[in-house]
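Subject: Sanity check before I submit

Could someone independently write out the structure tokens for this chain? I want to compare against mine line by line before I put it in a report. The sequence has 180 residues.
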Amino acid sequence: MKYYAVQVKTRGEEKYIRLFRALHPGCTVRIYFPKRKLAVRRRGKMIQTTPAVFPGYIFVEIDEEDSVYRYHWLFRRTDGFFRFLRSNQNIKPLGGRDLETVLHFITKTGPLAGISRVYFGENSRIVVVDGPLSGLEGNIIKVDKRKGRAKVKLDLYEDSFLIDLGFEVIVPAASPNPVL
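---
Independent answer below. Compare away.
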């Protein structure tokens, strides 16, 4: 399987996917649009939102034996399409660190990245127990304990951007045999 990044209209990703499926019902490519749960305070109330992990991008999974150029025109004909990444003339599948990052949100967290469970160890360092933050500890830039958010730096095609992922703090169980 090869994965490709497609740039579409920001905040119109779900609309693009629905329109693509309606226009091309026989097309069997799998399209992924990873999202994340995030609690936001609006007018004094906490509201659960589901913003995009990669705003303006969807990811397409194509079988090895298929050519991306077979589907290229189907994507281009759908309203809201901007380009395949690198460019429409130089379409490259995701690879290396880019592929690892995207697969982390596609396969490990599912279509909706939930809230991570963490605790704070020695020197107030964050320790991730489970959730979408696991495996991204080295990319955490800032932690806001009050809001329950961790700012994470993600890279995609030599471009970096920051996203917030939510977490809840758990208290680790005390060790039965303390180290002396």
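---
OP: Matches mine. For the report I'm noting this point. The first strand starts at residue 2 and ends at 8.
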